[in-house]
Structures are given as C-alpha cells and as structure tokens.
Amino acid sequence: MTTHVRTSAGTVRGSWEDGVAVYRGVPFAAPPVGPNRFAAPRPVVPWDGARDATRFGPPPPQPGRPTEGVDWLNLAVWTSDPGRTGLPVVVWISGGTYLNCNSSNPHLAGATLARDGAVVVSAHYRTGAEGFARLDGAPDNRGLLDQIAALRWVQDNIAAFGGDPGNVTVFGQSAGAGSIAALLVMPIAFGLFRRAILQSLPGTFFAPDLAADVATEVSAELGRSPRVEDLVAVAPDDLVAAARSVTDRLPQRVGRWGSVAYTPTPFSPVVDGEVLPASPWAALSHGAARDVDLLVGHTRDEFSLLAARLGDVDAAGVDTLLNVLTPTPGVQRYRAAYPFASPIELRDTAMSDWLWRMPALHLAEAACAGGARVWLYELCWGFNSLGASHSLDTLLVFGTAEIETGLTEAGPGAVAKARRLSNLMRAEHLSFAATGNPGWARYTPHERVTRVYDARSTLARYPEERSRSIWRDRRFGALGLRT
C-alpha cells in the first residue's frame, strides 16, 4: 500500500511496511556534480506529480561499490503515522570513517525506532574527498554543509510526516558523532536541532595544514593538484580509488601526519576558522551549544574491531605508538596504571582511549563546563571475543544486532540478553529524544554518574577511572602536521 506526502519540492510516494510508512530516496539538495561539484549544497529542483520514494536513493561515492547516479544528497524517512503531529524527530548521521554513508544499510534501518514513537530520518552526505578534502576553490567540510542542508529540509518538511520540527535530535556514531560535535559549534547550524546523541566520538579533527597535505597526496595519485579546476572532471570512482591508495599507505605517514597514521581514514572535519570555527571541546567549554541537551556514550572495547589491522605488537612498538599519539599522556603513565597488561592489551586500551573513549568523556565534561545538560553511558556487554565493540551500542539501539553479526550463532541465551538490553537502550534513548531526559541522573565532572549498560545495567561512577586519570590534563583539539 502506498502513502503520499507533500514536501516543499513536490509530492513523494512511499510505502507502508509492517506498520511503518517509509519514504526513500527523497532529495534534499541538488546533485553535487558538474558546476555544483565541491560546492556547498544547492537547493533541490522541484518536480511535478508524485515522485517514487519506494527505493533507496544512491549513496555518495565511497569505497567498495561503484557510484550510481548523481542524486547522492537524498534521505529516507520512517514514521508510524504521517497523519499525526508532534512526534519527536531523530535525524541519523551515519558513521563510517568519513568514507562511507548509506541509508540502505539494514543495520541502520529506522523502522523499529519509528514503531516505538519517533519519526526517523537518515540523510546522506558527501564523504571522502568529495566531502572533506581541502581544495582550493571549494569550501571546507562540504559533508557537514550537506548535513546542515538535510537538517534545514527537516525543519521545512518533517511536520508533513508527523514530526515536530521543534523537537529534533541528531544522532550519530563514530564519524557521525564527530560530525555532530562539529555541528554543535557551527554558527550556521544554530537552531536546527534541540538535542544530540553522540556515540563513540572520534578525537580526530584536522588543522588546515594537515588537511591540505592529505588533499595534495590524494590529488597526486591522479597526477593533479588539490584545486577544484583540476579535479572537477575526475570521475568520482577515480577520486575514491586515489583516496583508498592514500588510506592504505597511512602507516607509512606517521613521520609527517603523526597519530592519524594509526587511524583507518585520512579525512576528518577541518577546523578552518570559517565553516568550523573552533574544535568542539574548546568551543563547548566556552558555552557553545549550552542550550542543546547531550547524551554521550562509548563502548568498553572500542578498538577491538580495528586491532587486527595493526597486527601484533611488542613492548618497543607500544612505546613508539603511545608516545606519538597527539595528545598523548605517554607510555609511562599507561604502564603505571596497567602494570600487568600485555603489549597488545596496553595498545588496545590506549587506542580505545585516544580514538574514542576519552574524546567522548572530555566532550561531556567540556559541555558541562559550558553550561549544557549532559548524560553519559558506557556499554560493557558483548557476546563474543570482541567484547563491547565499536558500533555494538548503535545496533542495540536500532534493534538490528542479530543481522549478520554472529549473535544468533552465540546461542539463545546471548540473543535473549541482547534483546533485553536493546529494548532498554532504545527506550532510554527515545525518552531522551522525546523529553530531554533518558531516565537517570545527569553527568557532572564531580559525581561522574554514568549509565553502565551490561547484562545487568546499573548506575555507577564512570567505570574507566584509570584511563580518565591518565588523560586528566590532556586536551583534544585540531591535529596538525608534524614538524
């Protein structure tokens, strides 16, 4: 059965699926190709008649799949009642190392969240070099500008889908959380959302010199310079391949790019002083976004999914790695705090801290200092050797942890525990989106009350006390070139 909704650009025809109305491939900006390539997003071109919105729109150019079409800037909407008014709105911003973004990912389908009482929007944005390379003749952070265009579309149109444009929560994990951290301190995003959920916030934001150096190397793969006029005619898939080659060589760039060499991506938001005026931690501590409620969280075993990429490590390798991370508390603090850890355990703990856990904790504390209301959680439950791995909390909130993750094979006991935890996490996240309160005490740097999601979920002081103490006097900011 089909369902029609009138948007500001024209009517879209979606479909009813298991009690949820779904509208896919809805454009929110013009195709970013031709003269619009590497430009800020332009208004969508209106259409006549009813536009088919029963199939997902093409994602932006990204590794692992050929680029399809040109209408990359599209979104999907899930709603239980498009005829209703006033439902809370959750706008999902995908993670994926600033390289991937695809609303058709079954792990990130919004149907379950919609059935539980929200209007869910999942928006594409330009990733990789298309969205984040620093190019002469183009604005920085085009991917972030795409997200802002999608949020403006929500303000203009979501009431027609049953949502309340005055009650919008942005929700993102990993690179999606990094994007939201940037949106929180970007003046042009002011007023577009009321609340924010940040899962596993990465600590990588680039200074202009590092971003320009990365763009130069990506362009050199194509025999070109990092200028719009040199790259505008390059096929999108060729630009993706060039960025992929640079990504594969990241471990060789530690001498110039520093700790970025230990990450899975050469792209991050650029603190350019214009589009993104300051690093999120500094700006939030000075009161930016003090009126936005924040729910911040991470998993206990953040680095387990990426550990295989670095392979084994000995004591000397741990010394080198931990001392090059920027900012770094140094290997000696880690050895003192974790005296019985093996080299691999020490590396994995430090990388979890540096890349995700401490950036999230420090963001929560910076926002508290700036006057915002903040809630904090940590996921400690897992069902296999990876433990509470990166992105598992996202799957539990979306209710998709049983899809091709090995959970079903772990047995009915693990499945039952996952379902109970999924229901709890989703209810508390939706309570936050609807009311600004997930149901437990707010986080403060003194009390450090944290929701600990586990087989038996509790409230406790922040669990990672040793790591918190190690990082207490380090500050996250913009990463620059090493000299």
From TrEMBL:
It comes from the Bacteria. Its EC number is 3.1.1.-. InterPro entries: AB_hydrolase_fold (IPR029058), CarbesteraseB (IPR002018), Carboxylesterase_B_AS (IPR019826), Type-B_Carboxylest/Lipase (IPR050309). Residues 3-311 form the Carboxylesterase type B domain. The keyword Transport does not apply. The keyword Hydrolase applies. Pfam families: COesterase. Keywords: Hydrolase. Belongs to the type-B carboxylesterase/lipase family. This is Carboxylic ester hydrolase.
